[in-house]
Write a structure and sequence with these properties.
Strand order of the largest sheet: 3-2-4-1-5-6
Strand content: 15-25%
Structural class: alpha/beta
Shape: globular
Helix content: 25-40%
Number of strands: 9
Number of helices: 7
Largest sheet: 6 strands, mixed
Distance between the termini: 75 Å
Radius of gyration: 19 Å
């Protein structure tokens, strides 16, 4: 008998929680763990994800993605399986404090690819194919997918309009987006679930400028000098002695002012 042609599957995309920053000038490390705040956020998210009654938990093999969905898998009595195709964008970039400039360029030209990397259009094709395979494999179920910010953003960009660089840049860590594939069409409601919890703000005080910029890049925060208008760059020297409050803490911060002393 021929297989079913009607597929219905809910895909719950989970962008990983806050992880330790990469080391500038070195290849990104897939084994980077979550920070203490990231571990706490993953634990807080676990019950909410388990209440979606997942039938499978599948993740990027990167440690930070697995660690974010592992508490939910335990709560649901499931194991986390990994798939290479769910990994983050192969950007061709080493970690760098000015990553945002390079990412913005790629979003403006999705066909642009750096040597050894993939274009964002290629990432969209990879992410959509990966999710299509999951929907076919877990037809009738709910799949939690642990992955990454650019991966999730480019998947959503392939499904519908309105997904751009600011959307990707400002995506919280963690973030959850729910999609449903019905009859071969991927759609449904996609939204961030905030859970009304304060977003953890990295502690920059005591770090060198280079360390602060690396941590800010991982958290996708732009650091500003004391005048609050000049972006901090690697040309500055010294250590951070004070940082501004980002506000209420109910929205993910995208900028922080720091004071530097030689």
């Amino acid at each position: 008998m021929a297989g079913r042609s009607f597929v219905s599957c809910e895909i719950v995309l989970v962008r990983h929680a806050e992880s330790v920053p990469p080391s500038p000038g070195k290849p990104d490390d897939p084994e980077r763990p979550l920070t203490a705040a990231g571990v706490a956020a993953a634990e807080l998210l676990a019950d909410e994800l388990a209440e979606m009654n997942p039938t499978a938990v599948v993740s990027s093999p990167y440690r930070r993605a697995v660690a974010t969905v592992a508490p939910a898998a335990r709560a649901a009595g499931l194991e986390v399986t990994t798939r290479w195709e769910l990994r983050e964008w192969d950007s061709g970039l080493e970690p760098t404090p000015d990553y945002a400039v390079h990412y913005e360029r790629s979003w403006a030209d999705p066909d642009f690819a750096r040597p050894g990397g993939e274009s964002l259009r290629q990432l969209t094709a990879r992410s959509m194919a990966a999710v299509d395979r999951l929907a076919e494999e877990y037809d009738g179920g709910v799949v939690l997918v642990g992955s990454h910010g650019t991966f999730v953003s480019r998947l959503l960009a392939g499904i519908g309009p309105g997904i751009d660089w600011p959307f990707s840049r400002d995506m919280p860590m963690p973030a959850v987006h729910r999609l449903r594939k019905t009859g071969g069409v991927m759609g449904g409601v996609s939204r961030n679930l905030n859970y009304d919890m304060p977003w953890p703000v990295p502690e920059f005080v005591g770090l060198s400028v280079a360390q602060a910029l690396a941590l800010a890049a991982e958290a996708e925060i732009v650091l500003y000098e004391a005048d609050a208008t000049t972006p901090l760059t690697g040309r500055s020297e010294g250590r951070v002695v004070r940082q501004s409050s980002p506000g209420s803490g109910r929205h993910r911060p995208t900028r922080v002012t720091v004071w530097i002393t030689p």
